[in-house]
Amino acid sequence: MIVERTRLHLRASRRRVLRAGVIAALAASTISLAQDNNPGGCVVNEKSGDDSCSEAGASLDWVPIDQVPEALRDAQCRNCSGRYLDPLAGVSTAEPPERAQINARADSSDLQGNQAVFDGRVQAQQGYRRLYGDNAVVFRDRESAVLTGNVTLREPGVLLTGGEAEVFSETGEATVKDASFVFHEQHMRGAADLLRRDADGFVHIQDGSFSYCAPGEKDWMVHAEHLKLDLDEGLATANDATIEFEGVPVFYSPWLQFPIDDRRRTGVLWPDFGNDSSGGLDITVPVYVNLAPNYDALYSPRYIEERGFNQELMLRYLSPRTGQWSVGGAWMHDDDKYADREEVTGGSDRWLGVIKQDGLFRQRWRSKVDYSKASDVDYMKDLETTSLESQRKTSLLQLAALDYLGDNWLFNLEARQFQSLADDINKDYQTLPQLSASYWGRGQPFELEPVIAAQLSNFDSDEQRVTGQRLYAEGGVTYPMRWLAGFLQPTLKYRQLYYELSEGDGFTKDNPSAGATLASLDGGLVLERQTSIGGKLLLQTLEPRLYYLYSENEEQADQPDFDSAELTFTYNQLFRETRFSGRDRLDDANQVAVGLTTNFIDNLDGSSILRASIGQIYYFRDREVRLLPTAEPLDDSGSEIAGELDFTPTSHIRMRTSLVYDPFDERMNSGNFHTSYQADNGGIFNLGYSYRRPLTALSPDQPNTEEASLSAYVPLNNKWSVFGAVNYNTEADRSVEDMVGVEYDSCCWSVRFLYLRYYNNESGALTDFEDPDLERENTLQFQIFLKGMGGFGNRITDIMQDMIRGFDEREY
Prior knowledge:
The protein contains six helices and 49 strands. It starts with 19 loop residues before the first helix and ends in a 9-residue tail after the last helix. The protein is mainly beta.
């Protein structure tokens, strides 16, 4: 996604506004100047190490954390044990200082022809610009001033200090000798033999250095014979540049250009590398090309030791008419490791293509494209190794859709198919195309509202099986009634299915059809009372709900199953009008669902402290409509009991659980539990457990699924952290995915090491942990990041976000 950044340029046209009256004002030592919180009475030259300040770093606006106001002690401040505080923060920059009068004062002043001489504690203000020094000489003919001794020049976000400076009042040009500087917003400081700011606002540094580290720290620095900083564009250009890490040169370039903020720039990005057992050493060197504000390109040549070179390209485009586009792919000629497999028959060249689009035109037309295609079923497993989520994929979506959003109608046209990433499972049908229409009303209480929906689908397949078209339509009325204490909504409608089928085994009719009347009555109450728990005032609600559903039974044995499945039972399933996904079955029903929810709400902020729900369906007749025509009717008198619980006692802790219990077989069919804790220092702790018994009628050979998970990110102090995650299969009594790592994060650089192990099973197949040939992959990743300069090893971030729920990369 291309993110547009809007910047307001405040460069005004230069005008010659300095008059004799201004010079007279300079000579009037009685004119007062607004008080500055840090007048710059001392100089720290980091290049030489000279520190004449009573408190180290005082002239650089650096404030120790114990002196920083509580509201400004953000995560970066805590990490750096302090921060830069700009005394001019909040001062308006709307009016260029060149248009303002100059107010000045000093201990003494003297006019000598075209010169005005100021001695002792010189202070001057021109708009938002501030100047300080021990002495100053103003030249009227040159419209400039030379300041000597403890010189300080300030503007909002900028501090320059030095031993001597010359300033041109009209253009804003300045030259400072033996300079130190701070750019507050960029968290950047440095020093130079000579620093010059030209009339265009560029900063030129001769024989200087800079760093994002706090004053007094030199973990890393950039030294350059000449350095040009463009603060408006956020870009730095260095000649004869050396990057030092802990005082040791680690990189040299005769010419170097790099960003000093997070805006998009053309250039070579930091490399990304790792090592894993599936391919060996893995190195990527991305090249980013910023072609225009609304489109760009990223080319990423990637070397995998045991496979070869993979060429990856991604193009992005943003249009107000067609929305956001990303088109990319990868190509590897002759994958050496893949070619050694005995089962490979289609060649060893491998590729991946991806097209994605999201658009909204005139708030009516919405479009979406999500298309991915790979050369073979093992591509994602072998080459998309930066994310475990990619490793778990069993298919690639290929979708194109167009919606029209009317005032009362929604129309959808889409084409959908999947590329299977498993050779041992049936491929999904292709929907080429599908047209849907539905009426949406205003939902106005106590008004009769129509229910209208239709869907025409064409199903195709590459395999030898039945295909054809399906038409689904429904029509009826509903009457919503709403009160403060509850609701009641009856609905009556008729549903119709019609097929045009090709020849297929097991189907005796080319155009089977079915129709059924459906009636429902949904009602609930909301009861409230005030209560308290642990001294906290709460509003408790009790919300009973009844949902009666009746649907006729229609014979559907001759109808295919194109896109339908039996839904997994949960609490939300209690109040649905169908137990199937898709449109291939009109399920029969005569049942009532009973649900009960209670909610505890904080009176102060309206947040939910605890929400719990439980419910069950009671059946008045057998359910004869099944997904498989040969399956026996469902004859239980009631459904499973479903329950949910969401508990958030504090802003740091959240616990969620859901259970499905079968009271007839007296066993738990499924359940999951997850609790998370997020500390103020950024620590994260997650504990989870999930259990699921398979639907034995459909998957008799599938074992139970039972897994426990644990993940944590633990800051040991302001600099050191450890992190890890384990996904443990209790049925197999072993870990299936585990990760451990360590992080060092100082104010100006960070480094991470990560080790990951996981099972690389055939896509879509059940894992046989007793198989002696079962492969267990492992990978070692390394990441280093120089803050303000960038770094390499971003794969670690992807893996951590994948395995540690709630982890987000910090912005500093």
